[in-house]
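Objective 1.3, modelling of assemblies. Example input:
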Amino acid sequence: MSLQKRKKSIDADVKITYKTYLKPLLYLLPFIISISIFTIYPFFNAFVISLKENYKALSGSFTGFGFGNYEYVLTNETFILALKNTITYVLWVVPISTALSLLVAVLLNRRTKLQAFFQTAYFLPLVTSAIAIGLVWRWLFNFDYGLINFVLSRLGADAINWLNNPSYAKIALIVYGIWSMMPFTIILLLAGLQNINKQYLIAAQVDGSRPTQTFAYITVPLLAPTIGLTMIVNMITAFKVFNELFALFNGKPGPAYSLYTVIYFMYEQFYVKYRLGTAAASAIALFFIVMILTLIQLYMQRKWKNY
Amino acid sequence: MKKKKLSLTSLITMTLLMCGAVIMIFPFLWMILSSLKTQVEVSMIPPTFLPSNFTLENYIFALKTAPFARYFLNSLLVTIACVVITMFTTILAAFAFSRLKFPGSNIIFSVLIAMMMIPFEMLIITNYTTIAKWGLMDNLIALVIPFTASIFYTYILRNFFLSIPDSLYYSAKVDGSSDWKYLWWVMVPIAKPTIITIALLNTIAAWNSFLWTVLVINSTSNRTLPFGVFAFIAEGGVRYERLMAAATIVVLPMIILFLFARKYIVSGVSKGGIKG
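Predicted structure (tokens):
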């Protein structure tokens, strides 16, 4: 009898009593308590709150159940603006940061000298507070004394009012977003590159393939699953953009309230306007976006595992 | 001939990598350099690169005007509490889900994994109400208890625990070791690198946490560093040399941590595909 089978037969002999669960339950208890109170219950409660009309947090009073909050959110101009801004942000930040990260990852994978220095330089933004570094970017984008405008003036261009002109403010946010998303993306792509079987690359070299050809026809297709997954994870992160916005515009949603994002809208409904029902409804809208993206991710993971 | 060509590609590689590295690191460099300049020098055109005379007066101003030492202590306390408690719940739960398999454990675990996709932002509203009901508003404990368990870290550690051969467990059992002893004396030491990795990811996340802190903390003495530096804009005015000093105080501990533990952090990130 193989070990596997023997183990199974031993397990089958054990009768399931309350004792079977007692020990695991004791070990799981701290975890389960914490997760139940702060993840599972709030998750379901968000749906309940979103259906309560005129819900007041302090008194717990509400006038009845209905879809009023969803109606309010989905027809609210600010929410529509927030959704548009968020999608614009995602569509710029995710592809650009992925493309740049791919370049860096491929170069880093060549195992040049100074690996430790390069890794430190490229990965550092990963560990630093988005709020603190957001202040640095604010300083770099400063109209009068910011370094970016100084460089532009040296290149003969006019100074740009990055943080006070709505269309440039969007660019400033996107630039900061790309910069902060790159370390994570590089790490994942680098891990993907290191998993590629070297034999394919050597075979290509033996067959006389030029480095650019090898990259385009062998490395990129083999890396496609990792690239896809990275982009999905980054899309989820980018959909939740908040800290970057908060830091760059001093807690305001951009110049002249032009740069609302979905999370900023939720934050304002909840914390500034105390409209818990609409805050919950917008959070659920976000949840469905994230869920759809995650399901695509799982589907792709399953599909790509086969090859 | 061949050698020359090779060195040319590596030269291009180095140049490109160097340019990119400078761009990535520049905001940090500029932050530190600006924090060491005087007010006159930061607003000079053209800007100087290195401070013409190093000054620490921005740091002194920041520490005097706002209780940054207090913020630092708060951040440290909250981070340590979060990490220690989370590691405890994580180790126990990972053990239950890997070694103490019980009927239905895989189903429960799958449900938990599915819950990883719930954005934290969605939970904020109810958690806020819970904290308020418990009378913990504006209390450092409010920054710890919602973050005392993590499905993601449990998932990573459980996967590692599963790779430890069962024979070890049975031989420990024969030697009369209890499950509890086996976990802490055998499994935890073997899993040390993985535990360090998740503890580091947890440290980074706890240290940089911002949105939740802004919601539940009110008084100055209970602020953590990221909140403190944000509030400093109002207190210290938009004087960038001072703001850069404050930002440096927030960022430096994590930079130092990263310099010492880069390998662990990078391996943790590439394992999970989830940001800290």
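The longest strand of chain A covers residues 52-53.
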